[in-house]
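As promised in the previous annual report, we have extended the structural survey to additional targets. Below is the entry for Peptidyl-prolyl cis-trans isomerase.
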Amino acid sequence: MTQTMKNQTPPPSRPGRPGQRQRERQQRKQRRQRRLVLLFSGLVALLILVGAIAWAVVAARQSSEATARADASATAAANATSAHATSTANAVNAKATADVQSLIKANPKGPDTPPKVDGTPQKTASGLQYIIIKPGTGATVQSGSTVAFEYTGWIEGTNKKFDSSYDHGGQPFAVTIGQNQVIKGWDEGVTGMKLGEMRRLIIPSNLAYGDKDQKDQTGKVIIPGKATLIFDVTAVSFTQPPAQQQPGQ
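The corresponding structure token record, generated without further manual editing, is:
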């Protein structure tokens, strides 16, 4: 049996198909090329991603630095503006204080009778009359302005003084214009004044207290009904809204 097996002729090998090895080599080459292309594409994508991240970091840093510079510039500008405003306010307040002291020195108390003034009174449509005794150089008093005034008031005809801020230590009287905090003649008469201006107001009774007597706490008549009032008023400074009564009350 062994002999028989040794003598057997092995079957002939099957010949390969024509071009098969060449195709296999070509396929292996194409697979390598695809892998290289994929690898290269991955590397390129990775480089792009890294570049984008780096650009974003740089842009964010530049934006942060620009914002910081802008904030610093804005802060510096705000500080400069605030300092200028504070300096201006201090200068204005100092001038107002000096003006008040000068007025108090000139008027240790309100004059008992109206001082003589030059000029022809200007009359408004309402019947109010006024004379500019001394022009002002400051800002203009407008409706809504809160202004501190020095004043003295008399009753026309008798020329009797009924009130004066100088009789109260020269403490300026503050009022917000156009808010019905004072008689109509005051609201109208001081509107348009400039700070530092002194103006005489001649206020008919219909713009003052009308027909009603104005009495003090003891019941004494201070301002009789139907009285025309005379005020010498000086606009001293702009100030904070007040919480006080009308002059003469």
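Residues 80-90 have pLDDT under 50 and may be disordered. Helices lie at 2-7, 20-106, 184-190. These points will be discussed at the next consortium meeting with the crystallography subgroup.
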